[in-house]
C-alpha cells in the first residue's frame, strides 16, 4: 500500500529546516575570525539530517567536517563526495580500519593505544591528534604527549586539536588555563591547530588558531546569540473540543478548566523529543500569538488552550522565531543541544533554501 500525495503526512508534524539560515550562520561565524572555519555535523547534523546539512554547508564554503564516530563519517562522505576532509573525534577504534580507509576519513588519535593501532593498520593514511588540555574527556594527556610526540610527528599528522570545557562562560578561568596548556603542548609544532567550537570562537582571536569547529551556532543555538533560527516545528491539530468550567484535560487530570474553554489536541509528544518536563512552561503559536499548553505532554499528543483563537488553524507551531530551541531548553532545564538532538525521527523533515 502506498499513500497518495494528498494523504501523505497529514497527521505527521513537519520539522522545517532552513538551510539558508544554516549557511548564513556558518558565514557569520566564519567572518568573526580570519582562520578557516569547519563544520561539526555529528549526531546526524545535530538531529537535522547530516547529508542535507553537510551539503548546504559545503555549498556555503565549508571544506572540513567533523563527526563523532566513523559510521557518521561514511554517510557524510556519501553526501559530499571525495573532496572535503572529514575528521572523526573518536579516533581509530577497533573495527574502524576498513571504514576509515574506504570513506577516506581522518581519525583524531586520542591515546597511545590508538596511535599504535593506526600506525600498524594504516601507516600511510592521514591522521590528526586530539590533545587533552584539562577537560579530561577525550585526547592525549600532556604527560603521554611527551612520550608520544616524536613517534607521532614522524608520520606528519595533518591537524592537532583540543576542546574547551567552559567556553560558554567567557569569564571562566578554565578558558585561559586550557589556552595556555594548548600553546605549551603545540607552539613548537608545524601542524595546523584547532581549539575552538562555537563558544571558543566568541572568546576572541587568540582562541582561533588555524581552524575553528562550530557546531551548535550553525544550528541556531546558544552561545551564538546572533544566530538565525534554523528549525521550526508545526504540529497538526487533530481534534478540537469544548470543555465546561470544572472539566479536566489529559493524564492525571493535571489541568482543570477555570472557564468554558476550547482545547486543541495536536500530534506530537515526548516520543518526538518534546520533553515532558517542559509542558507547563511552553506555548504553541499561531503566527505571533502564544496559546498555552495545558495538561501533560503525552507520548504522541499535546493539548492546547485555544479559547482565545477565533478560528483554529490546521497546525500550531512549537518552534518558531518566538519560541526557539533555547526557549524549550530553558523550560526543560536543559540545553539547546539536547532539544535539537532529541527532535524525533517521526517528523516529516522539510528542507527549505539551498
Ligand atoms: C561537539 C564538538 C564541537 C562542536 O561544539 P559546539 O559547542 O556545538 O560548537 C567541537 N569540537 C568537539 C571536540 C566536539 O565534541
Plain-language structure description:
The protein has 354 residues and is of the alpha/beta class. Helix content is 29%, strand content 23%. It is built from eleven helices and 19 strands. The protein has helices at residues 19-32, 42-46, 50-60, 70-80, 97-102, 112-121, 142-153, 173-186, 198-201, 325-331, 336-342; strands at 14-18, 36-37, 39-40, 64-67, 85-88, 105-109, 128-130, 160-161, 193-194, 211-212, 231-243, 248-249, 255-256, 261-267, 283-286, 289-294, 301-305, 315-319, 348-352. Strands 1, 11, 14, 15, 16, 17, 18 and 19 form an eight-stranded mixed β-sheet that branches. It has a seven-stranded parallel β-sheet with strand order 3-4-5-6-7-8-9. Strand 15 and strand 16 form a beta hairpin. Helix 3 packs across helix 4 (70-80). It is elongated, with a radius of gyration of 23 Å. The model is unreliable at 4-8 (pLDDT under 50). Bound molecules: pyridoxal-5'-phosphate. Residues 40, 42, 89, 163, 197-199, 213-217 line the site of pyridoxal-5'-phosphate (PLP).
